[in-house]
Design brief:
The structure holds two protein chains of two kinds. By secondary structure, chain A is an alpha+beta fold. Chain A has helices at residues 6-26, 29-46, and strands spanning 51-53, 56-59, 63-66, 70-76, 86-92, 100-106, 114-119, 125-133, 138-149. Helix content of chain B is 0%, strand content 53%. Classes of the chains: A alpha+beta, B mainly beta.
């Protein structure tokens, strides 16, 4: 193909740009920044310690009709003995204005690492729960919920 | 008047894991809501909850604006001795609410 035809090259470039632009446009730009907020909050709490997936089960309703009060049940797989227990549970949100929703401090005397509470959700998102063990290892679980009435748009 | 509702069993077997529920009436004003004149309503939340079993802290929580109004918590404690549970909520201004419940462990 003769490469001295500027218009065909330009069109190819244009099409390439257009398709990549479309791919980016499909992902809301703000989603990046919001997840960044959550990761920054996680780094502030736990530094760059590795977080393994598992041991934490998060239960949220699949559809939260009212984001102002969403029941959440968290259970961490742990024997809760003096030598092996969950010391902290943190609820993180990628979409709320403040990424840390609540922190729970547990002791071996709890016997069972399970907490239920009610949280506010600023939109459809995947809530991340991180459990810190007494030996410093971190485990996480996630659960996505669809929020029909967000707690933060009506604010 | 702030209403506190507690659910603690009256009796338990030794080493039984009991379920405790605690709720306090509070608006938990997040600081993100807009008032009638378009101004942000100032944040006013409870920031700390603590549960003591015969004087020892067995559970605590830090609340942020993402906690729903009338903060409710359900957690568990291993019943070891007869005695009392004390529940303490502290708001961002340092105001404190407390309530107690007693348990007979056999």
């Amino acid at each position: 193909m003769p490469s001295d035809l500027p218009h065909s090259h330009g069109r190819r470039q244009f099409l390439k740009l257009g398709s990549s632009g479309l791919a980016v446009a499909l992902i809301p730009v703000s989603a990046f920044a919001e997840t960044d907020d959550m990761l920054a909050a996680q780094a502030e709490l736990f530094g760059d310690r590795p977080v393994q997936t598992g041991r934490v089960s998060v239960d949220l309703p699949p559809i939260a009709e009212n984001g102002f009060s969403v029941p959440i049940n968290i259970q961490v797989d742990s024997p809760m003995t003096e030598d092996d227990y969950v010391s902290q549970i943190v609820i993180l949100s990628p979409r709320n204005p403040l990424p840390v929703l609540a922190q729970y401090h547990l002791t071996p005397r709890n016997g069972l690492a399970a907490v239920s509470a009610r949280i506010r959700l600023g939109g459809t998102q995947s809530i991340r729960v991180i459990a810190e063990m007494n030996d410093g290892t971190l485990w996480s679980g996630e659960k996505e919920t669809l929020v029909t009435l967000a707690a933060c748009v009506v604010l | 008047m702030t209403t506190i509702r507690l659910s603690v069993p009256d009796t338990a077997e030794r080493d039984e894991i009991i379920q405790i529920r605690a709720m306090i009436q509070h608006d938990m004003e997040s600081g993100f809501r807009v008032g009638a004149r378009g101004e942000f309503l100032p944040r006013d939340i409870i920031t700390r909850f603590e549960c003591f079993y015969n004087g020892d802290q067995v559970f605590a929580a830090d609340f942020h604006p993402g906690v729903a109004a009338n903060p409710f918590l359900e957690f568990h404690v291993r019943a070891t001795d007869s005695g009392s549970f004390e529940f303490v909520w502290t708001d961002q201004h340092g105001e404190v609410w407390t309530d107690t419940a007693s348990i007979q462990v056999s």
